[in-house]
TrEMBL record:
SUPFAM superfamilies (alphabetical): Alkaline phosphatase-like
One Gene Ontology CC term in the entry: extracellular space
Organism taxonomic ancestry: Eukaryota, Metazoa, Ecdysozoa, Nematoda, Chromadorea
Protein name (database record): Sulfatase N-terminal domain-containing protein
InterPro entries given in the database record: Alkaline_phosphatase_core_sf, DUF229
Pfam families linked to this entry: DUF229
Protein species of origin: Plectus sambesii
Length: 317
């Protein structure tokens, strides 16, 4: 079974140079990887991001819900799906969910960030290696329409349905499920000229969701990926992150495991054109080192990149 990127005829490849600067955005998410676990598992990759991309290590990112769905909702739509315990002494009181019926409403009708980027003229891509997907967990309806210009979901739905196909496509040639995602993504990056801004979200579940040591063996792969493709990401915001830490297993019985579960990793690099902006760098230094942040801050940052920041020509940080 194969996949390919066929460039969309609806995307203008001759961007007007008078347009505001529109850097690309790449989000690489490893499901269930805490900051500590990331540092233990993929040190070479992190080192390349820090040294070659100038990435910041956000030490204080907090998850906002128990599993992928509420955290995905938070950083991709800005919507709080879970109830919030009161912070005062009336401990019985809870703030209700901002979208109590979220599992039975299409994500298309939300503030999904991919739409903001598409509306701003970006060509977009979303791809996950889990047959269900973050918004389509059992019991939830997910998207009604293709949410991005390019979408790999049909490939993994077929893989999930047909064991023989999975065996022929992945197991026999010894291909792990993350590899087609990455190949698809590189095809995407190369299918459009650099003048076309790109938004891409790669969500990798199978590597680490069930295995605390699942990421170790891919450190060389991702270190090479970021090293070899430095040029492709030169004018991009790059997020390498997770939704939460390990959610189950013996490690959760330990105090460290509980702390790690609440502190997903986030490494974040800015486009080269913005990498000398003193105010931006100061904000990133402060917010990465000394502040507690949450997935709602990630959403706000994405929204700023898609909407407000270009209007001020990236001068207001
Ligand atoms: Zn998850």
């Amino acid at each position: 079974m194969h996949f390919q990127i066929v460039p969309s005829p609806n995307i203008s490849v001759n961007q007007n140079t008078g347009e505001p600067f529109r850097p690309s955005v790449f989000i690489l998410l490893f499901d269930s990887v805490s900051r500590s676990s990331g540092i233990r598992s993929i040190p070479k990759t992190i080192n390349i991001l820090k040294e070659n991309y100038g990435a910041f290590d956000f030490r204080g990112l907090n998850k906002v819900g128990s599993n992928s769905l509420p955290n995905g909702y938070a950083f991709l739509t800005g919507i709080r799906t879970e109830e919030l315990p009161s912070v005062d002494f009336h401990m019985d009181e809870k703030l209700p969910s901002e979208r109590p019926n979220y599992c039975h409403e299409y994500v298309d009708n939300s503030t999904f960030i991919g739409k903001n980027f598409t509306d701003a003229g970006y060509v977009s891509l979303m791809a996950e290696d889990w047959t269900y997907g973050v918004f389509k967990v059992p019991g939830c309806i997910g998207f009604s329409n293709k949410p991005t210009t390019h979408y790999l979901r049909p490939f993994y739905v077929r893989m999930g349905e047909d064991k023989m196909l999975r065996e022929q496509t992945l197991w026999q040639p010894c291909i792990e499920t993350y590899q087609p995602l990455m190949e698809y993504h590189v095809q995407f990056l190369k299918a459009y000229p650099t003048t076309v801004p790109k938004f891409s979200l790669i969500w990798i579940t199978e590597l680490a969701h069930n295995y605390l040591d699942g990421l170790f063996h891919v450190d060389d792969y991702f270190a090479n990926f970021f090293q070899q493709n430095r040029q492709l990401f030169r004018e991009s915001f790059v997020f390498m992150m997770s939704d939460h830490g390990m959610t189950f297993g013996p490690v959760r019985e330990t105090k460290m495991g509980q702390k790690e579960n609440g502190n997903p990793m986030l490494f974040f690099a800015v486009p080269e054109s913005l990498s000398h902006n003193k105010q931006l760098l100061e904000n990133l230094r402060t917010n990465s080192a000394d502040r507690l942040i949450s997935h709602f801050d990630v959403y706000t940052t994405l929204l700023d990149i898609a909407t407000v920041a270009p209007r001020t020509n990236w001068t207001d940080f």
